[in-house]
Automatic annotation (TrEMBL):
SUPFAM superfamilies: Winged helix' DNA-binding domain (SSF46785). InterPro entries: ArsR-like_HTH (IPR011991), HTH_ArsR_DNA-bd_dom (IPR001845), HTH_MetalResp_TranReg (IPR051081), WH-like_DNA-bd_sf (IPR036388), WH_DNA-bd_sf (IPR036390). This is Transcriptional regulator. It comes from Nonomuraea mesophila. The keyword Isomerase does not apply.
């Protein structure tokens, strides 16, 4: 795997962030990662094929919502909460609250034993 590109803080565009959050699977991934813990890709449970999950994680990374770290053959992902707060103060909290109220992305979670 080649080194993943992560947009610098000033490169994170609101339109890209909002576009990335337009899919319920990606919303669910953000909800799972909002607890602040780094998660291995294998810990994530979603009702899609592994290749589709990988695509969704790449969309979130390319938009600047997440950071991916590779360690050997494993990949780990975290939510860029501090960067998003610095770039768009309050946005992530408002979006997370709305997601919870509307129960968007609830089909995404962690595999059993990985909470």
């Amino acid at each position: 795997m080649q080194k993943a590109h992560h947009p610098e803080l000033g490169e994170i565009a609101l339109t890209e962030v909002m576009a990335a959050l337009s899919d319920p699977i990606r919303v669910g991934l953000v909800r799972v990662l909002a607890d602040g813990h780094e998660r291995g890709w294998g810990q994530l449970r979603a009702p899609v094929a592994k290749s589709t999950l990988s695509h969704h994680l790449r969309v979130l990374r390319d938009a600047g919502l997440t950071r991916t770290r590779q360690e050997g053959t494993r990949c780990y992902v975290t939510l860029r909460r501090d960067d998003l707060q610095a770039r768009f103060p309050g946005l992530l909290q408002v979006v997370l609250s709305a997601m919870e109220i509307d129960d968007v992305g609830s089909q995404v979670g962690l595999r059993e034993g990985d909470s």
